[in-house]
Amino acid sequence: MTSVKIDVAAFNAALKRVAVIASANPAVKFETGVLNLSLLERNAIQQALAQSNGNKTAAAHLLGISRRTLQRKLQDILHS
Q1: DSSP line for 16-56
Q2: Where does the pLDDT of residue 57 fall: very low under 50, low under 70, confident under 90, or very high at 90 and above?
Q3: Which residues pair with 29 in a beta bridge?
Q4: Mean pLDDT value across the chain
Q5: How far is CA 45 from the centre of its chain?
């Protein structure tokens, strides 16, 4: 089993970004008021791409993920 270290400060910062996205976009909530993680992720990706003027490397940096991970997530979105 592989051990994974989590940077607590980075994790807390990511949670704050998710909270900001959720509060700014009520469409990411189900009718029950429960947050939809897939929609939160899609919205975060859209916002990062908009802020970076479509630059995937910069968008990935904003999201705290690799460019390859962003590319995979974009492919998943396209095929969903």
Answers
A1: HHHHHHHHH-GGGB-TTS-B-HHHHHHHHHHHHHHHTTT-H
A2: very high
A3: 35
A4: 78
A5: 5
